[in-house]
Design a protein that fits this description.
Elements lengths: L1 H17 L5 E17 L2 E19 L2 E7 L4 H17 L24 H4 L3 H18 L3 E19 L4 E19 L2 E11 L7 H14 L9 E7 L1 H15 L2 H5 L4 H4 L3 E2 L7 E3 L22 E4 L3 E2 L8 H6 L25 E3 L6 H6 L3 E15 L4 E14 L2 E5 L3 E6 H4 L3 E4 L4 E3 L2 E3 L2 E11 L3
Parallel strand pairs: 7-13, 12-19
Antiparallel strand pairs: 1-2, 1-4, 2-3, 4-5, 5-6, 7-20, 8-11, 9-10, 9-12, 13-14, 14-15, 14-16, 16-20, 17-20, 18-19
Helix pairs in contact: 1-2, 4-5
Length: 457
């Protein structure tokens, strides 16, 4: 089994490291197996598959710490990386805040998070589903000119061992599809997009995605420009997910909290969000995409209540072993596993789930006298983390809502606003939850979001 092999590599790496006269060692062996079918101009133009494995090695010598990553599972190369990590540690200044690598704790695997069919999905299957999406989109209207997007399938596995007895492993599958439809009438173009994430490839329904994207695209022809200012907004789950992901990144990480860059530090035990907003981070909840029993250090994942009835507290913070040690606490199991090119020592919530409400998306629109419907946000960045000020653009389906109906397409707009303000008054929350990367979220209706600019299209 893949995870057993990875665990053997991790344990052997630790054994080799401890023979080098160091205090502590940790090894995380990983394997990422992904495949992608990409399409544009209504035809497939790329089909790629990647299998990437490696080991992240950490050594500790008198509080001198070194972390080295090697992208191979070959024993000889791993041993060379261990020696390099040892040399770097000996040349590094001691980190006075470091307490210890985590000790061994009992953990249990999560059933049902790995789907063999998804992990071994064929290029032919993805191509057939892409064909369905393209044909569906074009069947919706003669003004549909192009369909683009991607269909990704694969699996990830990792195993962690350290010199204090940690020995743990995890494996899961994942898939996602994005479909963007471009329509054209005269000199005007319209855009619409739809996405779906799951652990099971059979959950992806290209016909539904393409139909949704095509409808938004056709309706987006000849957009009007709105004046700048604050508007009521109805956010699709894709748009809601972006806002919550940035809350997690800038607010609920112990790194931000300890560095004084988290809004939580300045809002402890205050109701900073609407009382209807409840968000937890729970990797053992089957509704999350990246459900794993352990984190990147082999620590069992713990549930953290990030927002409780709009209130944040010290219990809202996610820790790895290092940040927990700085405060004399235990890790909450939020160290990231080294399963992609992006790896950070920063602990983060990666399984955020918002409580559903009791409204449908149609009801949110029907209850809006004048506002904006947002399909998704693009190029969002934090401006002021302590106030969670974000800026970004609407994209691929932005509409004016008038008297309970989506009346006209609008030219994409730039928002810049504090989430402490935008999420203070959530008028309605959707009853249906959608997996969107590291979040599982509903649609939401906000009383106001501040728009400060207009895009070129």
């Amino acid at each position: 089994m893949v995870t057993e092999r990875l665990l053997g590599i991790a344990e052997k790496t630790v054994q080799y490291a401890t023979r080098q006269n160091i205090d502590q060692a940790q090894a995380s062996a990983f394997l990422l197996d992904t495949a992608l079918t990409r399409f544009a101009n209504s035809q497939i133009h790329q089909n790629v598959a990647t299998k990437k494995g490696g080991v992240l090695i950490k050594v500790v010598l008198n509080k001198q710490i070194s972390t080295t990553r090697v992208n191979t599972l070959e024993e000889e190369q791993i041993e060379k990386a261990v020696m390099q990590a040892v040399r770097i540690a000996r040349a590094s200044p001691p980190n006075k805040d470091f307490k210890s690598l985590p000790e061994r704790e009992p953990w249990s695997p999560i059933e049902g998070v790995f789907d063999e069919e998804t992990a071994n999905c064929t290029p032919r299957y993805r191509a057939e589903k892409v064909k369905e999406a393209i044909e569906t989109a074009h069947s919706k209207s003669p003004i549909v000119k192009a369909v683009a997007g991607y269909f990704s399938t694969g699996s990830m596995a990792f195993a962690v061992a350290n010199s204090l007895g940690v020995s743990a492993r995890a494996r899961l599958s994942s898939t996602n599809m994005k479909t963007t439809v471009i329509s054209k009438s005269g000199t005007s173009e319209g855009f619409g997009t739809a996405k779906k994430y799951s652990r099971r490839v059979k959950d992806i329904q290209p016909i539904v995605l393409a139909g949704d994207a095509a409808e938004k695209s056709v309706k987006s022809i000849n957009p009007i420009k709105l004046s700048l200012g604050e508007y009521e907004v109805v956010l699709s789950p894709l748009a809601s997910a972006t806002l919550l992901m940035f809350l997690g990144y800038v607010g609920f990480s112990a790194t931000s909290y300890q560095d004084g860059r988290s809004f939580v530090e300045y809002c402890l035990n205050q109701q900073v969000f609407d009382g209807k907003l409840n968000v937890k981070d729970d990797a053992k909840d089957p509704r999350t995409l990246y459900a794993t029993p352990i984190d990147g250090e082999g620590v069992p994942k713990r549930t953290v209540q990030l927002i409780s009835n709009g209130v944040v507290s010290e219990q809202s913070i996610c820790y790895n072993s290092f940040t927990a040690g700085r405060e004399g606490k235990k890790s909450t199991g939020h160290a990231l596993p080294p399963i992609s090119d992006y790896y950070s020592e920063r602990p983060m919530p990666f399984n955020m789930i918002a409580n559903p409400g009791d409204a449908t998306l149609e009801e949110m629109i029907a209850e809006t006298k004048r506002g904006i419907f947002v399909t998704t946000f693009h190029y969002v960045n934090p401006v002021e983390p302590t106030k969670v000020v974000l800026t970004g653009l609407t994209r691929d389906g932005t509409f004016l809502i008038e008297n309970g109906e989506m009346s006209k397409p609008i030219v994409n707009m730039r928002f810049t606003d504090s989430m402490l303000s935008a999420l203070k008054n959530i008028l309605m929350i959707g009853k249906k939850l959608e997996m969107v990367e590291a979040t599982t979220v509903p649609s939401m209706k906000l009383q106001k979001l501040k728009f400060v600019g207009i895009s070129a299209y």
